[in-house]
């Protein structure tokens, strides 16, 4: 079944928020329960986007489906995080930043920098950026209550 011939009538009781949510409400099907159409064929929930009248509305539905699926996948992979794990990640990100800045300053002190030093500096920068972005993403997911911290309400 493709998106072009999919209609709300072909998917009875379509509710996008409960379809992609990890918590069922009002007795709706929980995530992970396969859906079937009237001919008892399995339906992929991502394919059940409703008909919309504009490209903007369709794009909004895709974005909403992506957020909900991301939440479900993260919930399946990472149920809870210990505060000590978060602190360790923050320390590692700070160390990476320190190593990168130290290498940057050291390179600026030298009259000429060689290719190997530039490659090493690039690796340190990427490592620092990756950890910093990861910490920020984790922080936002904690604020959005997508990830729980063990022992913290």
What does this structure look like?
The protein is mainly α and 153 residues long. It has four helices and four strands, in the order H-E-E-H-E-H-H-E. The protein has helices at 16-20, 55-77, 83-109, 115-143; strands spanning 35-36, 42-43, 80-81, 148-149. A hairpin with a 5-residue loop joins strand 1 and strand 2. Helix 3 runs antiparallel to helix 4.
List low-pLDDT spans: 1-34
The chain-level structural class is mainly alpha
The biggest sheet amounts to: 2 strands, antiparallel
The number of helical elements comes to: 4
Estimate the strand proportion. Answer: 5-15%
Q: Secondary-structure element order, as H and E?
A: HEEHEHHE
The radius of gyration computed from the alpha-carbon positions, rounded to a whole number of angstroms, is 23 Å
Q: In which order are the strands of the major sheet placed?
A: 1-2
> What's the overall geometry?
flat
């Amino acid at each position: 079944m493709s998106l072009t011939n999919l209609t709300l009538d072909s998917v009875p009781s379509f509710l996008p928020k409960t379809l992609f949510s990890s918590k069922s409400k009002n007795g709706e099907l929980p995530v992970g329960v396969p859906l079937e159409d009237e001919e008892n064929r399995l339906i992929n929930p991502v394919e059940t986007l409703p008909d919309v009248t504009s490209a903007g509305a369709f794009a909004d539905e895709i974005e909403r489906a992506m957020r909900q699926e991301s939440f479900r996948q993260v919930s399946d992979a990472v149920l809870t995080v210990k505060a000590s794990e978060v602190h360790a990640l923050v320390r590692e990100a700070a160390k990476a930043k320190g190593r990168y800045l130290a290498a940057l300053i050291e390179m600026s002190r030298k009259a000429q920098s060689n290719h190997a030093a530039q490659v090493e500096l690039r690796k340190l920068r990427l490592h620092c950026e990756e950890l910093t972005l990861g910490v920020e993403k984790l922080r936002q997911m904690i604020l959005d209550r997508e990830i729980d911290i063990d022992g913290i309400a």
